[in-house]
Please model this.
Amino acid sequence: MTDLSALSPVPPGARDAVLKFFFGPMDCGKSTLALQMNYNHSRQGRRGLVLTKHDRSGGPQVTSRIGLGLEAIEVEDSLDLVALVTGHDSIDYLICDEACFYTVPQIEQLADLVDDHGVDVYAFGLASDFRSVMFPAAQRLFELADEVCRLQVEVLCWCGRPGLLNGRIVGGEVVRTGEQVVIGDTDRSPVRYQVLCRRHHRSGLLGEGTA
Ligand SMILES: [Zn+2]
Model:
């Protein structure tokens, strides 16, 4: 490998595996960081799988809004993640994008992979839904992860305060009831999402020019 620059190859089994959860609101760059992390690990000679669910592209790949993309495995509810990984040859790490949408048993499987199979798991996702209630899978990640990191790629509410929560907007109004997962984010969908500060998520004020 001639392009390692400042990075060294890391031998397998050099340390305990870890489960890390990176969370942040929509559009804060989670998928971009997931792709960067995969790139760094693979350059250092480590073997990984990239998983996602409900990616915005509609297909099983991780895409980011700054234009990067990578083929990925779609995590169906019935997919056993331990069986998936042990069915591949010597996997060192997993990149789990959109992990907030996995099932709770799948989060348990991620912990099993770390503890029983020495696989590093890097999970990325939203913490809370449009009501500011934690997704079940995200809650389990908070409970089980070795490290939980709020992403520091700052996004702002329309008022300039840090954007921490995801508002679901239907007909120009913030809504607070409905299905936990509704995929908006397309031009044709009547549902859209807007990242808001806590104050404006709670009050429902959307600001001029954002409705
Ligand atoms: Zn605000």
